[in-house]
Amino acid sequence: MVPSLLFEVMLIGLLGIGSQWLAWRYRMPAIVVMSITGLLAGPILGILNPEEDFGSLYSPIISVAVAIILFEGSLNLSFKELRDLGKPVFRISTIGAFIAWILGSLTAHYIAGLSWAVAFVIGGLFIVTGPTVIMPLLRQSKLNPRPAKILKWEGIIVDPIGALLAVFAFEIISFMTADNPDGTKLLLFFAASLFAIIFGWACGRGMGWMFETGHIPEFLKSPAVVIVVILCFTGADEIMHETGLLSVTAMGITLANMGISSISDMRHFKENISILLISTIFIMLTASLQLETLLQIFSPNIIGYVILMMFIVRPLSIFLSTIGTGLSFNEKALVGWIAPRGIVALTVSGYFSGVLQEAGYDDAGILTTLTFGLVFFTVLAHGFSIGWLAKKLHLSMEGKPGTLIVGANRFTVELGKSLQKAGLPVIIVDSSWERLRKVRESGLNFYHGNMLSEQTEYNLDTIPYEYLLAATDDRAYNSLICTTFMPEYGRTNVFKISPFVEGKSTNSEIVSKVGGRILFDKKFSMDDLTDKMANHYIFRQTTLTAQYNYKQYVEDKDPSTVFLYLIKPSGQLKFYSEEMRTVPVVGDTIVSLTPPNKEKAKIQAKLETNRNNNQNGNQN
């Protein structure tokens, strides 16, 4: 029985999200897993053939998905990120793109054997990387902020530029080979490109104005943006093919830099849609390939072309375009290596393959094979090498899991010191210099500012920190912090001190239901932890052994002990919470807040009394 189209849609979504999960579970590049899954389901096993089954809907679905993905990426392009990187980003997106176009075209002609006309069209297209492949790599590799931002900006900015270069090259070729050359089409190309930018800017400004003035209710904001993105893309693309990508990029950048208060909510919504679309579109594209195409990519001229593009053209274009930009050799080497091609290259090359063949360029029939060869090999090579290379070049933030603590007080200072003693990165954030005094004296890393302010978002590097603990005296603020940062850190990595206060009638029942897992135990509020610190409770570290297991450890502890966190032999950090499912085993190190020895407590109490008496005497 032939499966229905509905079943195929379900299967594509299942394979896409399943591939993302497998990549996350086994720490593999997601784009590699999705590509292999699509090839298995499509040309190899013959389960799917979306291009054939979807018919005339196939191309519009791909185009709209690419538009939304590109818009979501450009929605993250704030000009504030370019304070120190504006020069290299501009150079790579202009001079670097031009060098890559020329060198790529020469390589396509002399190595792949394409005619000059086809070579310059495909050379322009292959300067693209794109958010569909760059974003998953950045999400997995944890690069330093500088190279990560450069790759992100380049991927999003150059995506529409590459498509436009291909269009421009085709229009130039058509003009030069025509019997009666007419410059009207060239003028139309430049006019259409300019219109696309202005139209995208106008759509962005219009949506921003409607958001800020309340003309669109909250529940309609995200759906309205999706529809306007499609309108923005289609309106420009109807005038000239591929200018729609430029239009949605302009719209996203405009919205990203308007300072709209609800932009973060929109960004999270679009990111979720983008991940779903990337997962399904990659499956659709790779599953639609023919088996002959797969076999052709191993021909010597295609392999030679791919090797030169990866090892000569890309590094050379980056190194030449970034001379005098302040980038280090290691940063240039990393950026010069990472350039995976993705959905835009596949979709646009398919379009030009047909157009060029209709124009009489028979060698354009190889474009799909050539494009997939470049996409597949770059996705494999860069997907598996980016983490390793970043570590070798000392550009990776990969390492022991760090903790960002919001709220400076006696308990968080001691907690931070215990984490630092265990060799784990830690930073404490607070808006009060007075509260940060103890943090500064302890030698811990700190940041002075409101965690929810826009200034903090741009100035505080949160990449080294996998966990966020909200531990201020304000229960509502803790919940707000957790709710705000949950999409960035993940539900399992965001914690707050218990909002429940024994014997008090508060709104803690409401607060407890808003964002974040309760840290340690429900019965230990901030007041309880502060009291324990005043009563000289001690941070103790215990490693479980075969002779002293977890059951014995728990039985020996005083009922007032607070179990804080455990560290696995691998360095993995786990904070105690009511939802923690990990059972400590032999080799794990547990850190807890325990009552002091009675003798030690007496000595400390006596010393504190003497200290207070001396202070009173000095004041008198």
From TrEMBL:
Membrane topology: Multi-pass membrane protein
Domain Cation/H+ exchanger transmembrane: 22-392
Chief location of this protein within or outside the cell: membrane
InterPro entries recorded: Cation/H_exchanger_TM (IPR006153), Na+/solute_symporter_sf (IPR038770), NAD(P)-bd_dom_sf (IPR036291), RCK_N (IPR003148)
Origin: domain of life: Bacteria
Location of the protein in the cell: Cell membrane
Bilayer-spanning residue ranges: 6-24, 31-48, 54-77, 89-111, 117-138, 150-174, 186-207, 219-236, 242-260, 272-290, 302-321, 333-352, 364-390
GO molecular function: antiporter activity
Name the UniProt record assigns to this protein: Cation:proton antiporter
